[in-house]
Design brief:
Layout: E1 4-8, E2 12-16, E3 22-26, E4 33-35, H1 55-62, H2 77-93, H3 95-115, E5 119-120, E6 131-135, H4 142-153, E7 158-159, E8 168-172, H5 180-194
Antiparallel strand pairs: 1-2, 2-3, 3-4, 5-6, 6-8, 7-8
Helix pairs in contact: 3-5, 4-5
Length: 195
């Protein structure tokens, strides 16, 4: 795609090619929406309305076409594209395989934590594989450790919330981070920070 950039913002880049087609490129997505009509557009939408719905209210929300839509939300195009890509990754790997990988990553994390004198707070039968809550040992400034990991290693540990504030770290091993390399990187960083 080549042409002149007509507009650029945090959300999208607008580009007009040599044929006059206007392309809208979301800056967070790898998809492009192109306007081939140049000066006018028409959209045909198929909208399902439940049988028991208030038809007058539905028409008011959707709009009549001539006056435009009255629905005030903007579709999160980038987020929808990201969700599509993420679900594609899940389907490619297979759901059961993905669950196993997350369980294996958590098991390795708990093994590495034990070597550092750290233990999970939640009993094994009640744990979620992608999220491990670590009990902070007495005498450790948990906030200082979190700040150091973020500053020196780019690793962000979640803090405890509510009554658990200052008492736990929350470690998310999710998606691509549910792997031995991420666990080993975290364990090495924690070993340095705990000295």
């Amino acid at each position: 795609m080549a042409g002149a950039v007509e507009d650029f913002s945090l959300r999208r880049t607008t580009l007009r090619d040599h044929d006059g087609t206007v392309h809208f490129v979301p800056n967070v997505a790898s998809t492009v929406a192109s306007n081939l009509t140049r000066t006018w557009a028409r959209i045909n939408e198929n909208i399902s309305i439940a049988y028991e719905a208030d038809l007058d209210r539905a028409i008011a929300v959707i709009g009549d076409g001539a006056t435009g839509r009255t629905y005030h939300h903007t579709a999160p195009v980038g987020m929808v594209a990201a969700l599509d890509a993420a679900l594609g990754l899940v389907l490619d790997e297979g759901l059961e395989a993905r669950w196993r990988r997350h369980e294996q990553a958590q098991a390795l994390l708990i093994e590495r934590l034990a070597g550092l004198g750290l233990a999970p707070l939640v009993p094994a039968a009640e744990r979620l594989a992608p999220l491990t809550t670590i009990a902070v040992p007495p005498g450790i400034d948990e906030a200082a450790v979190r700040r150091r990991l973020l500053a020196e290693d780019g690793i962000e540990l979640g803090a405890g919330l509510g009554p658990m504030a200052g008492k736990v770290w929350r470690v998310g091993l999710m998606g691509v981070n549910a792997c031995p390399q991420a666990v080993d990187r975290l364990a090495a960083a924690l070993a340095r920070a705990l000295g």
